Amino acid sequence: MSIMLFLRQIWLFSQVELSRLWLTRRGLMTLAATAVIWFVLLRYAIAPASEIMQEPNFQKTLTAAFGMLGLHQLLNWPAPELTLYWMLSLILLPLLSLVFTANQLSSDAARGTLRFISLRSSRSAIVLGRFCGQLLVQLCLIVLSLAATLTLSSLRLGAIDWQAIEAALLISCNLLIVLMPFTALMAVFSAWARSSRLALSLAIVSLGLTFGLLSWLIHHQPAASFLLQYMPGAQIWQLIPTQGWQSLQLAVVPLAQTAVLLLIAQQILSRRAL
Amino acid sequence: MTTQPIIKVSQLAKSYGRNKVLNKISFEVNKGETVALIGQNGAGKTTLFSLLCGYIKADSGSMQLLGQQPGSAALFGKVSALPQDAQLDPAFSIGQQLSFYGQLQGLSAQLARTETLRVLALVDLEQHYHTKAGALSHGMRKRACMAQAFIGSPALILLDEPTAGLDPANALHIRELISDLSQHASFLISSHNIFELERLCNKVLYLQDGKLQQHHAHAANSEACLSLQLSAAANSAEVCQQLQQLAGITDVTAGRNHEYQLSYQPQAADDFDIRLLQCLAANGWQYKQLTKGKSLEQQLFAQKKAAHV
Asked: What is the domain-level CATH number for residue B266?
């Protein structure tokens, strides 16, 4: 198969996933669920907390308490709303990503739809296309929630802050990279499991077990602590206090994790009976 | 000049656990042939289909479709299939999905839409372009699934139970459609409906206990046989007695529903069928059906039935 047809097929699969978000009942439910989650967070957490973060006493306390950890850097974001969005989304979105991307392949395989598709496309293109589609869908959700956060900030300031928009762009890029290994992990489990529910359960159990085993190993062999950095999302705690485009330096590990996980997903789907 | 077979299977084996579903089967299908795949439940028909489509891997043996391995990228758009029980995504309209399949095959968005309308028209579903697959009846979903197999111009079309679950009118329509399309593509059709396969196919693959028991064109041994069905009024003992008098006849067997199997020596009586009709007319027996050769059902199962007796 020519590389052009391969890339075209990946784009076609991605378009289908976007259509699934905007034009199907299930996709609209996902949008509604995201809107509700972010409305609650913006209205009852980010908006009041932004007011508190403006107070000099709070800023002094934060610097004194967490200065060693670099968390005082959080105060350098152009808008406190973005600071809170950044912290919340780094913790929340990977979890939501596991849920929202659990059905990349399993339903189609169980229904037999993959049999129609596999006569027209390689299994590698199916895995990559669905993965890219899910990333685009998540990018849409991130952009929408960031737009709501920026609107909240603009309403408080009474003006649009262009620095905040640039920061929002940086946040989008970073969040997308953070979500990549989680989305690829769900590609692995959805290539293997017969249903999205089973794929999600397997992912949660696997992550929990791996983390538990690593913790036990590190407890007995502290030298093995370096293994923790290879867990999906391990860079999140380092990302929280980072600022500016230099934060993308932490992208190497998640990108490598994504490549490895996608290769595993491709191998599983290639060997799977359809 | 010899042409390369469109399907070439050699010593193909597939087991599930200890159950040998296919036991070193070999066969070839040539371009332009419409081939029937027959066998009892569990005989391995769907397994063979899945192997040919590249859905599963064989334990041993080799397969080639149009000179390529099943699942090869070179076969995209050239081999299509109606797999058993496969369904379209219920969240999208059938038009959207078939257009998407067309685009995956390399058609532009506009061409894929035109092609989708063409294949939906073939199965009388052009009015349902915008209907979601989940909103269609079982029979309509089946026809939509069949339509996807006709997108583009596939050289080989594999159909697993194409008319199962269809009402008689639509089943007839699908049979006529396959008959028309078989002028341009080779078909491998799996079905339990022997009469359907008899009308459509010129070659039979009969799978039994994982082996290819019979493999022949069903017209091959039909020269000296006639199948006769009379109206209810005739007495079967009397009919047999009268038919035995015909010159060149070697055997008369009475079956159920006033059916008779006649064997004769064609070289001894080349006007045998004419004299048979004269005999029927002389005795005032109305015939319902007179067919040259044994039916496919008789060819396939008479031997087995005889073995059981």
From this structure: 3.30.70.100
Of chain B, the end-to-end C-alpha distance in Å amounts to 47
pLDDT at B223 over 80: no
User: CA of B54 to nearest chain A CA: how many angstroms apart?
Assistant: 8
Show residues of chain B in contact with A24, CB under 8 Å: 91-92
Nearest-10 Cα torsion for A83, A86, A91, A92? 110
Region of poorest pLDDT, from A57-71, A258-272, B129-143, B269-283:
A57-71
Kindly report which listed range (A55-64, A99-108, B111-120) carries the lowest average pLDDT score: A55-64
Q: B100, A26: Cβ pair inside 8 Å? A: no
The answer on B262 and B201 residing in a single domain is no
Say which residue the tokens 């994982």 belong to: B210
Is B104 touching A (CB cutoff 8 A)?
yes
Cβ distance B55 to A115 less than 8 Å, yes or no, reads yes
Task: Kindly tell me if the per-residue pLDDT of B214 is higher than 70.
Answer: no
pTM score: 0.84
Please list every residue in chain B whose beta carbon sits closer than 8 Å to the beta carbon of residue A274: 50, 55-56
Please tell me which residue, B210 or A10, carries the higher pLDDT value.
Answer: A10
Reply yes or no on whether the pLDDT at B306 is more than 60.
no
Burial grade of B233 (CB within 10 A; 0-12, 13-18, 19 or more):
exposed
Instruction: List the beta bridge partners of residue B187.
Output: B34, B157
Q: What is the ipTM of this complex?
A: 0.86
Answer yes or no: do A122 and B86 touch at CB < 8 A: no
The top-scoring range by mean pLDDT among A102-116, B205-219, B283-297 is A102-116
Residue B96: predicted pLDDT: 96
Measured between beta carbons, the chain A residues lying within 8 angstroms of B87 are: 111-113
pLDDT at B222 over 50: no
Residue pair A105/A172 in contact by the 8 Å Cβ criterion: no
Residues B30 and B179 in one domain: yes
Residues B131 and B59 in one domain: yes
Read off the DSSP letter of residue A71.
G
Q: Are residues B16 and B125 in the same domain?
A: yes
Residue with tokens 């978000």: A21
Tell me if chain A has a CB within 8 Å of the CB of B71: yes
Do the Cβ atoms of B53 and A119 come within 8 Å?
yes
Give burial (CB, 10 Å; 0-12/13-18/19+) of A112: middle
Host domain of residue B271: 225-293
The residue in chain A having the minimum alpha-carbon distance to the alpha carbon of residue B99 is A12
Chain A nearest-CA distance from B145, in A, is: 9
